Amino acid sequence: MVVTRFAPSPTGYLHVGGLRTALFSYLWARRNNGKFLLRIEDTDLARNSQEAADAILEAFEWVGMENDGEILYQSRRFDLYKKYVAKLLDEGKAYYCYMSKEELDTLRETQMANKQKPMYDNRWRDSSETPPAGVEPVVRLKTPLEGDVVVDDGVKGKVTFSWTEIDDFIIARSDGTPTYNFVVAIDDALCGINHVIRGDDHLSNTPKQIAVYQALGFEVPRFFHVPMILNEEGKKLSKRDGAMDVMDYKRKGYLPQALLNFLIRLGWSNKDQEIFTFDEMLAMFDPNNINKSASAYNLEKLDWLNSHYIKNTPNETLANLLEGHGVAITGHDRREILLDMAKERSKTLMELASAIKAIIDEPLEYNEKDMEKSVTPETSAVLNDFIMVLSDGKERHLPSEYQEMIDAFVHDKGVKMPMLGKPLRLALFGVATGPNLADALAALGKETVIARIEKFLKQL
Questions:
Q1: Residues 89-144: pLDDT tens digits?
Q2: What is the C-alpha to C-alpha distance for residues 181 and 166, in angstroms, rounded to an integer?
Q3: Where in the sequence numbering do the catalytic residues fall?
Q4: End-to-end CA, the chain
Q5: Any residues with CB less than 8 A from the CB of 95 and at least 6 apart, and which?
Q6: What is the rounded distance in angstroms from the CA atom of residue 271 to the CA atom of residue 23?
Q7: Is residue 454 part of a domain?
Q8: Can you give the residue range of the structural domain that contains 346?
Q9: Nearest Cα to 356, choosing from 346, 367, 342?
Q10: Co-location of 387 and 456 in the same domain
Q11: What is the spatial distance between Cα 186 and Cα 177, in angstroms, rounded to a whole number?
Q12: Are residues 101 and 91 in the same domain?
């Protein structure tokens, strides 16, 4: 059984790079009828935030990626980790190190001055010296002193590290709290994680984690180290470029399916296919086909995808989503007309909400430049005549019925369409440009249209 995991640290929000890693892990587990586990790596008690942990869970719920089993919190497993520290000490695979911070700093300065890689020098590895008084020791793992460790990575291929470049690293701090590389290996092993998909910034940690696996007799999982997401200039993604809280994408009006579709294409592809349903992602994704090179974040691509999903989302669903953006649309026909009219030109729900509010909200003022260009001496007469036609007692509900009325009015009155259209749009929306008039008239209704025209005429 394929068992994957996503293991964020709750020290901040979940960003898109983390969500992409989680998505890859989720899809691979689901495709193989395996398990996808969620672990909160909160051993850094000074930096952890419950609010950040909750934000991670909120993001998972929004995109619809449910984890299997209970969420594992590392901060609740300290007693377990201490048992494994004790086991390694008892077996002579780890040892107490009494080197002070000052001694370690001095060693590193000397090594750097000699153009050597700063490393712990193993002075307490097999020492028989009497421990100094008043020093709380750390616990270090004995790593092999020679040979190589080969990581057979699913993305990068075989990556070789020399054990001579890996020092005896700390697995428990002087206060007894365990370190990252130690607890990650233990939790992955005990939870049966056999496929680890994560960012390639963790590649350098892998030899240390393999050392823990080997010392404790655990089976080493299959690793997939995914290249980073870069901005369009090829630099590390910043918040300005898109590395923001996943929930900010929701607040900005992106749909979760669009964001997931966008992320799966950052580093993975299926020929030239751009749009993937979730079922297609599940059926096709394979981490062995992840690109070896970094991906470039492209906001235009995300907007294009989001626009596609907005256009293909049922209007009833869109109306519910728009309530979160301050827009409430009443009436089935009105909802259908407004959304069909506005969603064709909207890249986000925020844009869609703005487009609809520009129609349904009465204008508080009229654009001065448009007034100068579009209002003529004939404008009042044309609009008063249009009110007369609107008030002729005929029932009109559909855009097509209003279009017939507009066409007949222009023909019968002998006016050109701009003589009606521009001032009418000014009366309805406050600007001389806007949506299709027949659609807008049908959405607003006769009474609202007449009231706005009369208010505009008083302004004239």
A1: 999 999 999 998 888 999 999 989 998 889 999 999 999 899 998 889 999 999 99
A2: 13
A3: 239
A4: 75
A5: 89, 124, 125, 126, 139, 140, 142, 168
A6: 20
A7: yes
A8: 313-360
A9: 342
A10: yes
A11: 14
A12: yes
